Each structure stands twice: as C-alpha cells, then as structure tokens.
Amino acid sequence: MMDYGKFKFDQSKRAKEARKASRATSELKKVRLTPKIAENDIQQKTKRVLGFLQDGAKVQVFVRFRGREQAHPEIAMDVLRRVATGVAEYARLEQKPVMEGRMLSMMLAPRAGISRPASKAVAVEPRHRNRRRNGESTESAETETREPVAQSV
C-alpha cells in the first residue's frame, strides 16, 4: 500500500522539476539585422549572439527587409552566413535560413559543453545597473568598477 498524499507530492515535485528544466533549455533570444548592415555592426551583433549562446540560450537571427530590399535576398543570405561563420565553434545551425514574409531567419543552438568564462567585468556589471534603477549616482558606480582594475596593475 502507498500513501496517496506522498504519491501526489512526488508527482507534483517531478512535474515542477520538468517545467524548470524545459524553461531553462527553451529560452529564445532574437537578434535583428538589416541587409544594409555595416561590417563593424555585424561584428557587434555576432558578439551579442555569442554571449547568448554561451549563456545557453537558442538564438534566432533574422534579417528584416524593407521596401525594395526584398528584391535581393542574396545580400541577406550573405549577412546570415557571416554571422553563422563567426559563431561556428560555439553554435550549431538548428534551422537553415528560411524566408518568412518580410524576414529571412535562421535558428542557432549552443553546442554541448560551451559556457561563459568567468570574468570580473560580468560580475561588476549587474551592480552598476541596479544602482541606476535605484536612482543612485552612476558616477560612484563607475569609480567602483574602475578601482579593481587599478589595484591589479
């Protein structure tokens, strides 16, 4: 004989863990590009995609067409190809580039075993944001972020 209350508790606990696990793996970030994007902007967006992938999120990269840009989808394919080659060692192509209305999009998923390296700048950044939200001066927050660098030199 089994205690029904214990059975229901275990069942709800397993369901909660399953929801938690699926939520962590199903996070989707979107990055929008245009066909006329400059080379440096592509590099910046690639860094952003790389950060999302290292955090374990899937990334949908899409190029949005405006007006006559739709006549040249090969330019957008080239933009997506450059982003994909920039993150090739950290991502796998989950969905090939597909035209959906006025957007050409592809889906990237993180490769197994890739994670963000620990760095001091990442640890300091959230405190800086919280101070801004709380109305504190950003000047004092900036000096605090510079001090650890000066002490290490």
TrEMBL record:
Any one GO CC term of the record: cytosol
Keywords: Initiation factor, Protein biosynthesis
Gene Ontology molecular-function annotations: ribosome binding; translation initiation factor activity
Record domain Translation initiation factor 3 C-terminal: where: 27-110
One Pfam assignment: IF3_C
UniProt-annotated stretches for the region Disordered: 115-153
Biological processes per GO annotation: ribosome disassembly
Family: Belongs to the IF-3 family.
Annotated PANTHER family: TRANSLATION INITIATION FACTOR IF-3, TRANSLATION INITIATION FACTOR IF-3, MITOCHONDRIAL
Protein name: Translation initiation factor IF-3
